[in-house]
Amino acid sequence: MEQTVDLLAAASDWAAQDPDEHTRHELTELLESARADDPAALADLADRFGGVLAFGTAGLRAELGAGPMRMNRVVVLRTAAGIARYLIGQAAGAYTPKVVIGFDARTNSDVFAEDSAAVFAAAGFEVLLMPSALPTPVLAWAVRRFEAEAGIMVTASHNPPRDNGYKVYTGGRVTDEAGRGAQIVSPVDAQIAELIDHTQPVSDIARAESGWQVLPDDIAAHYLRDTQPVIPAAEGRTATARAALRIVLTAMHGVGGQTMARALRNTGFTDLHLVAEQFEPDPLFPTVDFPNPEEPGAMDLALALADKVEADLVIANDPDADRCAAALLDRGRWRMLRGDEVGWLLGDHVAASLPKDRRLANSIVSSRMLAAIAKEHSLEHRETLTGFKWISRVPSLGFGYEEALGYCVAPDVVRDKDGISAALVLADIAATLKAAGSSPVARLDELAAAHGVHVTDQLSLRFSELSLIPALMDRLRTQPPKTLAGQQVNEIRDLSTGSDELPATDALMLFCTDGTRVIIRPSGTEPKLKCYLESIEPAASLEAVPEARDRARARCLKIKDELADFLATD
């Protein structure tokens, strides 16, 4: 009874100070039902007020709605105030911090962005606000371009429509060169989190009514001007090759459509066919169950259009356009490339023109093919923890990628994954290969013949309780499987201890005598264990690649079955 009274009091206090009419009304109705002892309403309130959103290296991300466990104006105002305190502390009176703020087209993204601008302006900062809903890479570019101490991007990327989020970048005088324009890492996230006052009355948070600068409407054109040099100018045979490449593009109802289409046309890719049903920003994402190119069905419209127009290449950006997916014709059928495959194509292409003091990098859960490509080009290779916040900080980075469709092809310009500049490079690769009578699929076979067939796969195991995960990880550490697909497990690396190369993380790496690798780690947010598999099979020639690939795929499938049985809790 006492808990219910406290819950109702907390919700009433929240409703009284909520500046958003919609969430205030939502909460008021919920309170009325809860006071009438509606069990569903009481459970909903308990979920909304059972804690606070944890601010971490990914910032914030949650379902929209009233309460401290949801994304709303109260949470954003308090978070912005905490970030302002952090930046004031870093400046220590020596300079005026500069912040640039961007937002996508999700529900309330523009409202959250303007609330943030009002808080930062009231704190005396120089504040730059994007003029409209624009891609995340434009914000990441702007942090470096304007030498801002921080960047805020209001987006939930490819999450479901009901979600929104708040990403934080650092730059300027609060970090070193490797971190300028990159997402925050520890301990900055914890330092900011300590300064967020989750009980601060909204009326005590100073907000300016003006004082921030809205960037020019053509700011995306400046981003394109700076990223366009990732590929050569469209002249002579290059121009002819690009004009001959037929591309289908989908923006997945996000904010990347106009910028991506302009980037392609500016560089000579004029035979461009847009998926009209998904081109304009729409926060409801009406044609897909999940606005993620990796999800089943999300690419159906794009592939149907590709069939109709007989396209050479399909490009898809996720809703905030920081990721890039691709599909190609493979032996007469459209096939979505895995994130690793796109990474190999881009890495191979970029490496050919990099100075020898630049590095290639990928996350530990991505394929080892990039290391082989780096070696071929006499370049150093680095592995990082999962997430672009780590990849982008590799010193002297020339190219970086992660298997989850994130690619950085111009790290000196955008120190984050960028689905727009990556798509430009991929289109240039496809055009060049087509003009030479080849294709990206054929190039993948050539890479396999040169470096071995690398097949990657994933297994995600969901359990009934989050509390089961630590025990399962302990079991793996103390009683790991002795064999996988008939091969002895001959090396185990426990990443929880950390090393000179990698910070500590809760993950385990298993290596087999045939080179097969399995990485197992908790999801972190859900009761899941994620397993990343890679099998490498040598191929003596191009003709041997298909059979080698079949053997490697069969091995991965067998390992998935064995791991599912090994980790079963019943």
What does this entry look like structurally?
The chain has 570 residues and is of the alpha/beta class. Helix content is 38%, strand content 20%. A hairpin with a 2-residue loop joins strand 11 and strand 12 (333-336). Helix 4 crosses helix 7, helix 12 runs parallel beside helix 13 and helix 12 packs across helix 15 (419-435). The longest helix has 22 residues, at 545-566. It is globular.
Looking at this protein, list some descriptive labels:
alpha/beta, 22 strands, 7-stranded mixed β-sheet
Query: Termini, distance in Å?
Result: 37 Å
**What value does the Rg take, in angstroms?**
24 Å
Helical percentage: 25-40%
Number of strands: 22
Shape: globular
Largest sheet: 7 strands, mixed
Question: What is the overall pLDDT average?
Answer: 95
Task: Catalogue the unreliable spans.
Answer: none
